[in-house]
Automatic annotation (TrEMBL):
Any Pfam family hit: AAA_15
Name of the protein in its database record: ATPase
Gene3D superfamilies listed in its UniProt record: P-loop containing nucleotide triphosphate hydrolases (3.40.50.300)
PANTHER family: ATP/GTP PHOSPHATASE, ATP_GTP PHOSPHATASE
Start and end residues of each AAA+ ATPase domain: 24-344
CDD domains: TOPRIM_OLD
Organism this protein belongs to: Halobacillus karajensis
Amino acid sequence: MRLTKFSVTNYKVFKEKFTIDFSQDSIAILTGRNNTGKSTVLEAINCFYLKETKAKTIPNDCFSMRGKEIKLEAVFESGENKYEIVKKYEEESAPKFYDSENSVITRSHELNEALNEILNNKPFYITPSMLPEDINDLIQNIYSEIIESDLKKLENIGEDEADNAKLKELSREYEDIKRAYPRFVRKLKESTDKLLKEVSYDVSKDLRTLFSNEHINLNVVGGESEGFSSSDILKSTNSSVNIDNSTQSEMPLSNQGTGLQRMSLISLIQNMIHKNLMGESNEKLLLIDEPEAFLHPEAVRALSKSLYSIGQEMPLMISTHSPILIDLSERHTSIQVFRVSDKKAIQLFKSKQDQFDDDDIKNMKILNYVDSYVNEFFFADKILIVEGDTEYIAFRHLAKLHVKNIHIIRARGKSTIRTLMKILNQFNTNYDVIHDVDNKWKYSSQTLKSQKTNCLEILKLRKSDNIRIFSSISNFENAIGLDDVSNEKKTRTIYEIVNQGSDNPELIRAYNEIEKLFKCIVEKDYTITLNQNFLNVSSPEDYDYLFDELIKQKISGEEESKKKEEENVH
């Protein structure tokens, strides 16, 4: 039974109804600015599963509007069946569960069995602020899941396990205990029941005298055993996790650093899933609030791999501020990325198996290696893709100088620009691209044709007028008025330009051209006229103009050179 839709109303930051839809086979990643409610969503989901009996289980200050109920609405799916259940909290009252018709789900309700199955599958919930008792409770919960899974195997030995001698022996012992337990309780009760009968007689006699009623009888009846079940064993078991190191041994996990605690819990769950120790793990939900919190950068990268591995085998939902945790090159994993807003979680991205080709996957893996924060565009309001280091440094500097919230992605090549455009197009975002035309006379006709094809492929991926493509002729350095700059001097030159640390008129002019381009792209100042070396591309004809005549001249020149070579040979 898997959770596929969840809504929360009047709880903390969610004054109005907030809803999130997620598919059954995905990792759900919640992004958004601070205080938008990412952590609150996970907390509310965990609250839904709690079996509370006390009147005051949620503090009054969690009610966004006092006097109104908190509503947690959930949709679960299992095969063809769909269950809609609502949990309501009122101030100073114990919460109740309702069906979609607003009827209380009582023991006789048709949804009671399904509700119990849901609540018995409480999520694993890991937060940055876990207290020692929370950690111990989670460890016990994990251990109980394993014991329960093992007991179910003993109760239902399949044909493929019938030859397992150890398992068969355990199964027989378990059955013996289940038969012996009621017999033992009955023997134990014989003397007790006799005493209770005497007590009943004496008390009844006193009551008849007190109330002058000879028909009053009071009977104290001892409880009957209904047999021995797996829950009896779970109640009698306890577990702990200890950490040993070079200076101390058998220290409880709850006494360790926060980062070690969280990674240990996540790794523990991952390993137990892989070893099939968690029973029906494909229905057990794992909620992790900011898994990257308190972790060293290298540990965050390792964590990313662990989460994707877990997500293949059990439902996983995380809230995060870390772009490192979003890895689109993980082909085997289906993920959904959401941005949490006031009333709903807006789906930014949902991965599909056939979405990227082999070159795209390769490009994304390379980007992840060289720029761990490439996926920061999931967290940004404005996105700009640039081809090279020079424009990246220039725009980063000006964005900081003018306090602009823009994420700049350095693609380092036109093929990677195309991959990034495919990704961004998946969630219909607006973005801009700056790339070099690379229509230089020194290139052969074949190279020029390839460059034109690259440019046209980029243009084809422009899905709307809100996506703008700017071309630098023939490259960014040339477009701002500089001659070609060697790779080893590019960084030093652009640093000198943007920091205006030179009286060189050529560098001052270059800075002015960069600033005009920045305002045109980032601030969308359409009053600015760019110089002729920057082109806002709108159609394939723009590239025809830049390439066709040049290619024609190169072909003519190459044919003439070939003809002369042949004449010299003869």
